[in-house]
Amino acid sequence: MPTEHGEKKIYTLNDIAKELGVNKATVSKAISGKGNLSAQTRARILDFIDQCGYRPNAVAQSLAKNQTYNIGLMMPDYVGVLDEAFFRECLRGVCKIASNYGYDVLMVMDSEKPVEHIARLIDNRKIDGVIAMRSLVDSPVVGFLKEKQVPFVIIGPTSDQSVLSVDNDNRGACRDLTSLLITRGTRKMALIGGDDNNCVTHSRLKGFWDACDQAGLSRDEQMVYLDVNRDSRLPEVIDTVLAQKPDCIVCMDDYICNMVLIHLRTSKVQVPRDVKIVSYYDNILLENNIPSITSLHFDAAELGKIACQKLIDKLGGKADGNYILPGYQMVMRDSTK
Amino acid sequence: MPTEHGEKKIYTLNDIAKELGVNKATVSKAISGKGNLSAQTRARILDFIDQCGYRPNAVAQSLAKNQTYNIGLMMPDYVGVLDEAFFRECLRGVCKIASNYGYDVLMVMDSEKPVEHIARLIDNRKIDGVIAMRSLVDSPVVGFLKEKQVPFVIIGPTSDQSVLSVDNDNRGACRDLTSLLITRGTRKMALIGGDDNNCVTHSRLKGFWDACDQAGLSRDEQMVYLDVNRDSRLPEVIDTVLAQKPDCIVCMDDYICNMVLIHLRTSKVQVPRDVKIVSYYDNILLENNIPSITSLHFDAAELGKIACQKLIDKLGGKADGNYILPGYQMVMRDSTK
DNA sequence: CTGAAAGCGCTTACAG
DNA sequence: CTGAAAGCGCTTACAG
Predict the structure, then answer these.
(1) Residue B48 has pLDDT above 60, yes or no
(2) Domain A70-168+300-328 CATH class label
(3) Among residues B208, B220, B218, which one has the least CA distance to residue B181?
(4) CA of B173 to nearest chain A CA: how many angstroms apart?
(5) What is the pLDDT of residue B311?
(6) Nearest CB to B84: which of A85, A121, A259?
(7) How far, in whole angstroms, is CA A183 from its chain's centroid?
């Protein structure tokens, strides 16, 4: 029932109750479906609500029900350029499911003081639970959330069996890809990996060793370089690696892979003729590279969806198992032909 | 005052009032600083609050003050891979300022039904205002927000003078970079551009033409290719362009630039000897390319900050001018030597 | 300077 | 099946 001015009146439960000559509790019941009403009055109320475009005030509901229908999403402030796609996809997944259940997602970019920020949200009772996209080893966030007793799930690895977590099977995937290379005759493999402080680095390394062990290859620590960050060491590391004449260079992420490719180009080393290249992560720029790069592909959106689903289940009181490991794809391309 | 169990009691205003033998209105005033209180009782109350770790229930405050201290941030669901860095930086900027002012950011990933989603948020009164990262031409979102009379600011270009907006000076930046190339002797330039439905594409094209006009070069439409998306046309477009022997290829974004580079490599065309390359956007992968690529760099975080600041000003009743155009950097690198 | 009251817009026992 | 009441935790005029 818009007025002549086109400004729509915003109805409250009370308004509707008065307008219809019933009690506002009755209206509330009609909407929520709780308690019993005659089908007739329910229909009458619902009809009217439809016409006048009534929408409940979520804030008032929150206060009355002590539930906000908000979840806090903690996202790393800085992530590698090439992980951006991952986080964004993950965010999409989370938002999608949240939306399906009528929840909203409150961003926490954990820049300087992630713990303080999330603490404020919790203490002010602005959220019901949190999803932490955790990427750093020994993040203080997890301890904090446990202490606060807020329902939460983390995206990433944990050794802590008491926390709900969802993760890609990085270890298994890296193992499988490495194994496949070995099966195909690769023997001398080099591994170049990123941030040592990042959980995923360790999982991937483990997978790499798993495959070596399984194939009876000795662990050649000389061929493994971790914590190779962008600023400095990468060029010399690549030189050192090349000097050892590997069959294949395994890059832990696409940033490293890109740098390796550039370097090889300058050094006139041909892929895959002289050396094979594999990346443990799949970015579109490398897919387009010539030769295209063999890599692993994880479904980040799915990960976000599952994380969100688990949190909502938990908020709804459904207990649930600890881990879920969605699948992955090995994308075999020209760089390992 | 934690109990023996380590579970901290959660205090309400009422609890504190009782504990201290004062009225809860008094406590409220002590906290808000509104109204006048004796310095003594104020101090006593504030002390106690400090000790017991009281935090106001934000939901109750929202209801009483009719203000949520939440802002909705609309983010495009799908963005080009290489724009991800831009959006993430922008998001950071927004979150940063929001946090400074005690606001929280509610994500809206406008996938299928952006308007419906934001409508729900508004109608349920979960947010006070919105920031729209608008990237598409003729987005229905803006019209909707105007109609709803919700305070909002958009990040991106508008012709609509009645809406608050913040944008990079894409046109000016592209003009300047193009002009500089012309000054340096470039005459025959090709332009390859992305999504025709994206506002930024048009701004950049205008800047390109501006520079041509200014230098008295005729507008050679034969050398301009828009809406070149990834799936298909790019390789043939590049061939067509190369056949015309340009001095320089201007790429509207880094995805295109990357494809061009790959293609040139395969065709044994050398940069910058045979042709110069410029990108209108700056991604780290291209910075590392050999040769490194000349490009424009925009400060996305700053853009986000300003957008958020403007919205908060508006929410606080401060009217403000319509546009702000932050600066940019021209990063001259090897590809135009 | 402090208190008592009404109100924000809902929900949820509890009566009838 | 419907209504009257109390309550969620705050804020804000209004008295005194």
Answers:
(1) yes
(2) alpha beta
(3) B208
(4) 24
(5) 95
(6) A85
(7) 32
